[in-house]
């Protein structure tokens, strides 16, 4: 008889389904890498214009074109990793190789020459961006799929994702300070040199941390899985057909579609106004004086990440174990709406310390999003296996889910600029009108609060409860035994 242990929620689960601490730590290191790369990329991309003289329109193309490429590579990589058979498993070889390639090409990406022509730097950056995207997809898609299959226990999945996302928040504690470091003349002779040098440290960290889940984490033993597609040059066309078939099956899964819709709304709303806080702090609180503003914006982002990691995520994990994942998402998202509203009083020119006041409530939005959604996607993978059989499609589900995140991020970049234009904001001006600042502050509150409310409505009828998930798991065991 298998050993049983009691969880905080009071239910019993098999001790074999608990993820060992070393594996949780390794997966958390991978999650840190998963956050650090796009975070650093977002900061460094700003310096394409200021440090390397790139036209803003061309800089926008360099940000958007790789995202379109992602739309092709992510589902293909999901199919490949789902159907791979190797002595090291379906995911781990790709994670190790992908982490190394991601780090190497991230560093090469930013060795631009500020003295070179704009045309040369455009094509240099675009080519290496596409190569970097392939390496990053090779790492990220199997890595996300691995997390879905590291445990089959309903609540242990939430604990794993909570631990991983806590470590992932470390990236967002660090990234805001890249702005300060790159622009510091005491550290680097120019912004270009700062980007070039700092990218090497980011690349080294990502390689070192990114390979750990591939070395230490264990997923499903796929050696006995049937119905896997053959992957070779001879089967390219039939494989592409299977890729589209898998995508079609994924989108027939109604609970998963709700997860994607809610994620798109919450994350898109959050990202759309992400830069607004910086502008509000500079122009509303400090009258456009960047010198007086100092490091307040960096501290705002860093404290947000600290609160999310060490306060919000543990609370959300407790709520999910006690009240279920769906209810925890609805409650945490509702709390974040209150936090967004408090920003009206938090950005107080007479007391800069008030900017930290809304953070504990606001952080429930993003803190709850990825912890709970990734846990629920793992439950959805069980449901898909019951409906469609083997092979399990964690890689495909992970690819589609994160593709929604990337599309939301790209759309947020476009719409964010549009909102700034509509409110009449001019970042090159020394001061902004009272009307512009008021409209900007209202947008900073109304947009994320509205998308969060819509996400609650989307998830209201999400019906993959703990009872249903456990029944699906038991049925799968009866059909094919333990994996």
TrEMBL record:
<feature type="transmembrane region" description="Helical">
    <location>
        <begin position="353"/>
        <end position="378"/>
    </location>
</feature>
<keyword id="KW-0472">Membrane</keyword>
<feature type="transmembrane region" description="Helical">
    <location>
        <begin position="440"/>
        <end position="460"/>
    </location>
</feature>
<feature type="transmembrane region" description="Helical">
    <location>
        <begin position="40"/>
        <end position="62"/>
    </location>
</feature>
<protein>
    <submittedName>
        <fullName>MFS transporter</fullName>
    </submittedName>
</protein>
<keyword id="KW-0812">Transmembrane</keyword>
<keyword id="KW-0813">Transport</keyword>
<comment type="similarity">
    <text>Belongs to the sodium:galactoside symporter (TC 2.A.2) family.</text>
</comment>
<feature type="transmembrane region" description="Helical">
    <location>
        <begin position="194"/>
        <end position="216"/>
    </location>
</feature>
<dbReference type="InterPro" id="IPR018043">
    <property type="entry name" value="Na/Gal_symport_CS"/>
</dbReference>
<dbReference type="InterPro" id="IPR039672">
    <property type="entry name" value="MFS_2"/>
</dbReference>
<feature type="transmembrane region" description="Helical">
    <location>
        <begin position="399"/>
        <end position="420"/>
    </location>
</feature>
<keyword id="KW-1003">Cell membrane</keyword>
<feature type="transmembrane region" description="Helical">
    <location>
        <begin position="122"/>
        <end position="148"/>
    </location>
</feature>
<feature type="transmembrane region" description="Helical">
    <location>
        <begin position="256"/>
        <end position="286"/>
    </location>
</feature>
<dbReference type="Pfam" id="PF13347">
    <property type="entry name" value="MFS_2"/>
</dbReference>
<feature type="transmembrane region" description="Helical">
    <location>
        <begin position="298"/>
        <end position="320"/>
    </location>
</feature>
<feature type="transmembrane region" description="Helical">
    <location>
        <begin position="93"/>
        <end position="110"/>
    </location>
</feature>
<dbReference type="InterPro" id="IPR036259">
    <property type="entry name" value="MFS_trans_sf"/>
</dbReference>
<feature type="transmembrane region" description="Helical">
    <location>
        <begin position="160"/>
        <end position="182"/>
    </location>
</feature>
<feature type="transmembrane region" description="Helical">
    <location>
        <begin position="327"/>
        <end position="347"/>
    </location>
</feature>
<keyword id="KW-1133">Transmembrane helix</keyword>
